[in-house]
Amino acid sequence: KATAMAGTEPEDETDELGDEIDAKAMMQRELEDQRKTLPVYKFKDELLKAIAEHQIIIVVGETGSGKTTQIPQYLHEAGYTANGRKIACTQPRRVAAMSVVARVAQEMGVKLGHEVGYSIRFEDCTSEKTAVKYMTDGMLLREFLGEPDLASYGVVIVDEAHERSVSTDILLGLVKDVARFRPDLKLLLSSATLNADKFSDFFDMAPVFKIPGRRYKVDIHYTVAPEADYVDAAVATVLQLHVTQPPGDILLFLTGQEEIETTVEEILRRRTRGLGTKIAELVICPIYANLPTELQAKIFEPAPPGARKVVLATNIAETSLTIDGISYVVDPGFCKVKSYSPRTDAESLLVRPISKASADQRAGRSGRTGPGKCFRLFTEHSYRQDMADDTVPEIQRSNLASVVLSLKALGINDMVSFDFVDPPASEGLLRALEDLFALGALNSRGELTKTGRRMAELPLDPMLAKAIVASERYGCSEEVVTIASMLSAGNAVFYRPKDRALVADAARQVFSAGGSAGDHAALLNVYTEWEQSGHSAQWCADHFVQPRTMRRARDVREQLEALLERVEIERRSCSGGDLDAVRKAITAGFFRNTAQRRRDRLYRTLKTWRTVFVHPSSGMARLDPPPRWVVYHELVETSNEYTRQVTEIKPEWLLEVAPHYYQENNLDAPEP
Ligand code: ADP
Ligand code: MG
Q1: Lesser CB count within 10 Å: N end or C end of the chain?
Q2: What would the mean pLDDT of 70-74 be, rounded to a whole number?
Q3: Ligand 1 pocket, 658 CB below 6 A?
Q4: From the CA of 187, how far away is ligand 2's center (Å)?
């Protein structure tokens, strides 16, 4: 018996190995079959023919037709990368780039980062092998700095052009120019909306290739009266659909991470009330920009048999990501909109009603695989009367300093004659030029200075970039780079569990020496101590610090360090703790964000005379007495205007770091 067993063993093993290979081959075949069912597949030859015949093409097709995942593969298979040139496919959103590329690598049966890779800010997953490169539009914009003719690319696909992000709009102007002197470059624009004429006009009547979508009928339901609390109404609607409607997944549109998280909790809480009755399982899948990658994949997994999936998504699910199997859409009709006013210089991220075009896109998500239903949590009257037809392009509601700096670095001096799809308001451009001049990035003739050139190399907001450049003078580049990395890693450095809020607050106060050291120093201290702990998860737990944010900060820091070398800034530390050096460098970048205390806890911004408060999350919020002079990282507008990430400064520093901007007499306002 023993010999028999020994004899069969190796065979068993090969069998198992064989099974594994079979399973893999089967999965690959399945993916292959799925690819063939996508609407774009039937038009593959026609599309390739059109691309061969025209240099520039606009591709229009319903979300989910396969534009993003398939077209780059078709071009790769058709030999467009055979000459060693790459295909770029840009996305306005990081998550979309990452999620789509994972799928494409799977379909091609290659490891992510080999033939297919992606590049997003602070994260590069490509190699020499990479032929198909997904990237954010902002990253391709940065590549122009090193390669103004995009020589390493044979095809550029500007995907999701209808989103009209600032970077997409600038890209369109730049690639139009490159296409003129590089007849070998193929340019594709893809858009999910049928309103492609604008792009066609912009590209001198480039042909529009339409991929007819499968779209089933969608029943639209409105509320009779406006909802007082849309989150509450959304939870009720989702649960009611779950109990009363036939199988099919639900997609709920919300405005951001925090709202999604509380809604998840609320659904869980109210769902358990129904326990005991025979209600099918409800699988809850959130998706938003900062969700860890492992969890992002979950939204694509089908719910187990008998269960229903509800996806809680931000705008990202409107056109960038397609989730199969959605039969019901719940749309409260809101999204977060960034807006900027050059007059007040305040940037705000506010929850606003969406446009009709957005509402229609959202509804369409339910009718991809069969007839769908869309439940709008607003009235038909408000759809018809209150909602704008289209969303205003981001370029017309953004701070343009960063864009203008990039364009100047590309040698584009005259902003007014740049070929914009929709030009930004001249007031905004002027404001950006003034700001860059104040930062020393431009000279009085509007030309890029050496400082400006260095700033443009850093993928950061110009003010933060300036702080890093200035840190050279104060011998504290190490510290300022750490602070910049922490500021870029996201707002969620600390967490605050409801049942331990006081302990968490106390733990947090320690990092800023009870508030007096300032928020920038607090970020520096958090990072330094985390490093010293050996990146310990326990340390994070003990101090209520989010490990994910810290890991991201470390990644950002590594990249910034490499860039320091490129712009020839020596890595120096003001060790021994001369924090005033660090504060001065920060002030050199953020001097325009100076506020002076008027009375109590009320501050006034020095340049725009706005009344602002210190954000409650700041270590300084409870300092008594509050400092008289502060610089802040940003101004956020909610019910009031709040300054976030605040540090005390001495007014005479302003004369030192920005003598062309501040004179003595600006500063001697009477004591409060
Ligand atoms: P389009 O760009 O035209 O909107 P896509 O190419 O993004 O379409 O999507 C085509 C199909 O690929 C969709 O059915 C979508 O569900 C699927 N898909 C895309 N990304 C993933 C992913 N990460 N996991 C699973 N399926 C995906
Ligand atoms: Mg797409």
Answers
A1: N
A2: 98
A3: no
A4: 16
Tell me if 41 CB under 6 Å of ligand 1. Answer: no
Nearest-CA residue for atom 7 of ligand 1: 68
**Closest residue to atom 19 of ligand 1, CA basis:** 100
**Could you report the per-residue pLDDT of 544-596, keeping only the tens digit for each?**
999 989 998 999 999 999 999 999 999 999 876 789 999 999 999 999 999 99
ipTM surpasses 0.95: yes
155 vs 251: CA distance, rounded Å: 34
Given this model, what pLDDT does residue 319 score?
87
pLDDT given at position 2:
40
Give the number of the ligand closest to the Cα of residue 325: 1
**Residue 340: band (very low, low, confident or very high) from pLDDT cuts 50, 70, 90:** confident
Residue 102 CA: nearest ligand 1 atom is: 23
Nearest to 146 by CA among 563, 663, 571, 615: 563
Distance between Cα 332 and ligand 1 center (Å): 25
- How far does residue 63's CA lie from ligand 2's centre (Å)? 6
Alpha-carbon torsion (645, 493, 261, 372), positive or negative: positive
What is d(CA 82, CA 132) in angstroms, rounded to the nearest whole number?
12
| pLDDT tens digits along 389-426 | 988 899 998 889 999 999 999 988 888 889 999 999 88
- What is the per-residue pLDDT across 101-146, written as a single tens digit (0 to 9) for each? 999 999 999 999 999 999 998 889 999 999 999 999 999 999 998 8
Report pTM.
0.86
CB within 8 Å of 22: residues ≥ 6 apart? none
Instruction: Please state, in angstroms and rounded to a whole number, the distance separating the CA atoms of residues 331 and 319.
Output: 14
State the number of CA atoms in the 13 A half-sphere of 91 facing the CB. 24
Using the structure block, give the residue that is written with the tokens 């950061």. Answer: 460
Buried/exposed 391-420: b ≥16 CB within 10 Å, e otherwise = bebbbbbbbbbbbbbbbbbbebeebeebeb
Distance CA 428, CA 392 (A): 15
H/E segment holding residue 90: strand 86-91
- Answer yes or no: is the C-beta of 102 below 6 A from any ligand 1 atom: yes
Task: Give the amino acid at 315.
Answer: N
Does the C-beta of 39 come closer than 6 Å to ligand 1?
Answer: no
Amino acid code (one letter) for 135: M
Which ligand 1 atom sits nearest the alpha carbon of residue 159?
A: 2
CA dist list (Å): 478 to 115, 266, 550: 36, 44, 16
* Other CB atoms within 10 A of residue 484 CB: 26
pLDDT at 91 > cutoff 80: yes
Pairing of strands 629-637, 594-599: antiparallel
Q: Which ligand is nearest to the CA of 369?
A: 1
Residue 65 beta carbon below 6 angstroms from any ligand 1 atom: yes
Average confidence score pLDDT of the chain: 90
